[in-house]
Amino acid sequence: VQLVxxxxxxxxxxxxxxxxxxxxxxxVSRLCMGWFRQVPGKEREAxxxxxxxxxxxxxxxxxxxxxxxxxxxxxxxxxxxxxxxxEDTAVYYCATDVVPGTWCSIHKDFPNWGQGTQVTxx
Length: 122
Description:
Largest sheet: 7 strands, mixed
Structural class: mainly beta
Helix content: under 10%
Number of strands: 11
């Protein structure tokens, strides 16, 4: 499985960004997938996950501002981020399970990860 993130960049506080994660080797429609972020010197933290059936869960600070979704036609995972804050600055990673139809949680240990994309909010 290969995951390739795109869409990161710099934005002013209050602005919006959309991230994409193109997946090859597996069908996103059948998998639990998630977005995570990491700031240098801190542990990586979950942002949001979406199950194979479309159920979603968000980290508390992302709830109401971020939306995770899948574009099954493009086999892509998406993250729409609105009302961005400076504390959202981080490298954002997408991750996927490889076993279809399994449980999904922000606490799940995902086996496959993308290379990351930088998001900077000033």
